[in-house]
Amino acid sequence: MNRIINHPDYVVEDAIQGYVKAHPSIFATTENPRVLKRPQAPISGKVGVVTGGGSGHEPAFLGYLGENMLDAVAIGEIFSSPTAGAFLDAFKAADAGAGVACLYGNYAGDNMNVKMAMKKAAAAGITVKTVVANDDVASAPADEKARRRGVAGEILMWKVGAAAAAQGYDLDGVIGVAQKAIDNCRSIGVGLSSCTIPAVGKPNFHIETGTMEIGIGHHGEPGIEVVPTQSAKEMAVTMLNFVLEQQTDTAHPDVVVLVSGLGATPVMELYIYYAEIEKILSEKGIRIHRNYVGNYFTSLEMMGVTLTVMKLDDELKKLIDLPAQSPGLTQAE
């Protein structure tokens, strides 16, 4: 293992320290070292927007704190859920009396710890409602959607939910539109190599050179199929076939496309891949209203790419277009 670290057991603490030092106008520490918030949070009259998840996916999750983005985040160990205490402290950091929207991914540890934190928050007089992301089409059949994992579609859910909160939506309004955002998202990933948790010191799964795993999860969860590595054009066809076959509503031809590397993918290759995605969607009469191409939701140093397509209506289009500033996502008008 060849890494830029001090000690494999303290990479999360050291990384948090770096984020705070690099972005002092965006991050504020709290009494809980595994909870960060915006310096302005809590904001009077505004619904607090919170997420949380395991480390190793940077810039997710902490990298999406910022203006018109998240208010507080609970930070877990690498590939592990934050504790219930961290979620509770994030709720407290974000709550100004208008309630808290907790928008997170569908993983067993997160589900358990969020529920525990919500009970304690209720006892403390904080109203928390949730949306659980389940956009990964490869993780369960369409008729078992509740079992699907949350992946990069979470970023678009956070963007929309946080924009709604910034625009003055009440808690039910934020929850409703965040749910619509993730319901309109479909994602899938392809992995070309494994990744290593520093404290473990060896790859946590294996992909043979010259092959790729379709539908692999962000923690190396098994995908649908292992096949010989395809060209960027062939990958685009393969992945869009999975995503589009479950986007049956053609009344709204505008979409958002998010292409994220998994940590070790050259950015140049992400753009090669995006060009093929754009070409196919254009041929199908689907308009890309906005695109995001880069490292948005990674898995340490895994090689590969994820594709997320979110169909838009007028409300989602307005919210996705709201300017935002965070280390992970910044956009102007």
UniProtKB/TrEMBL annotation:
Alphabetical UniProt keywords: Kinase, Transferase
User: What biological process terms from GO does the record include?
Assistant: glycerol catabolic process
What cellular-component terms does GO give this entry?
A: cytosol
Under Gene3D superfamilies, the record lists: Dihydroxyacetone kinase, domain 1, Dihydroxyacetone kinase, domain 2
Q: Name one GO molecular function term.
A: glycerone kinase activity
Q: Does the keyword Lipid biosynthesis apply?
A: no
- In this protein, which residues make up the domain named DhaK? 7-329
The reply on keyword ATP-binding is no
- What is the name listed in the Swiss-Prot or TrEMBL entry for this protein? Dihydroxyacetone kinase subunit DhaK
Q: Which organism is it from?
A: Paramixta manurensis
Organism phylogeny: Bacteria, Pseudomonadati, Pseudomonadota, Gammaproteobacteria, Enterobacterales
